[in-house]
Write a structure and sequence with these properties.
431 residues, Rossmann fold, Serine Threonine Protein Phosphatase 5, Tetratricopeptide repeat, DNA Cyclobutane Dipyrimidine Photolyase, subunit A, domain 3, 3 domains, 8% strand, globular
Length: 431
Amino acid sequence: MTKTAVSFFWFRRDLRLEDNIGFYHALKSKFPVIPLFIFDEAILDSLPEDDARVGFIHETLSKINAELKLTGSSLLVKKGKTQQVWQQLIEEFDIKEVFFNKDYEPYARERDESICQLLEAHQCITFSFKDQVIFEENEITKADGLPYTVYTPYKNKWLEKFHQEKPIREYSTSGLVSNLYTSNFSFPSLEQIGFVESPVKVKPYTLDTLDNYQETRDFPAVDATSYLSPHLRFGTVSVRKMVNFAVKTNAVFLSELIWREFFMQILYHFPKVVTQNFKSAYDGIQWRNNEEDFQRWCTGTTGYPMVDAGMRQLNETGYMHNRVRMVVASFLCKHLMIQWQWGEAYFAQKLLDYDLSANVGNWQWAAGTGCDAAPYFRVFNPDIQLKKFDEKGIYIRKWIPEFDLGYGKPMVEHAFARDRAIATYKAGIIK
């Protein structure tokens, strides 16, 4: 029996049909297109069965599938080891072309290279596209072609290039859906994938709060953030749409989007930062790494209200306000002298917007060991941060209901911890 020649579009970190560059080009293929998503066991096997991010992906895929059904098509969802899934697909379909959008993380790059080799060995042409960023790893470089490792000159070059090329095109796929493969694939339940629904949910993003973003973004009680980060992480919205909006609306918000790309290119060019200090001079620091102290930090029982409120918010909701993230990260690394990798791993378990490049970049920034990092002698005072950014205690009372009943003493005194941190860093930095 002759198989129908088809193309595939492989969804990964781009879970949307509209303004999806790889999907757009797939639909212009001369072969009918099968949309595909693979739940990768190499990633899933390390997650708890109620992981909220998996639930969000499943919910988003269900919506995509419903949209595709309106066109007479459907989403093919598989679960397994990626290489084995593609081997099965090669046997089942006459695959002529595979389209996907690039991913820049070390595991993804290695995976994609092996899948492309497999496909091309079976006479299948692969096409990859830039979709996750405005400018990828080698588009914003210094005059000598080397990557930037300091944010401000990177940002300036980014803006210069952007304004030379703007407006950034958005890709409509609405007129191309007739090239989708006619199908009615079975859509698996969350339980069939091996997971259960989580009480923690990803919030819809909003752009209504961004008019005064620069004035309100540091105050956690105001709740004036966009909640955009999980949507950028999983690609339920395109970065082009967000950047085009930010350019017209708010320069500070645009800077945050540029930070995202800065950390992505750092991870690409310096993959060691996943587990090692960007600045190797900091490798000699003698961390305390006390397990009991770490557990008090994790559970939000340090005695510092700003730290504890942030950790409780994270544990309960999967979110933490950005200002508070800086305070809790600084506290772990400098007050408790626990190395940043411990905090990074905990955030990776809990954050709904967990993104490897940003998480590693921001943790190393807080620890002082990363590129363009806060200097080691800057030690946030959690009490001063509380007075500056939650003076009336609205945020902390939301997450610490017992606060007015006589809150516990700080687990370590600030002045002592600050002096200890600075002395330990000084002694440990390799000249």
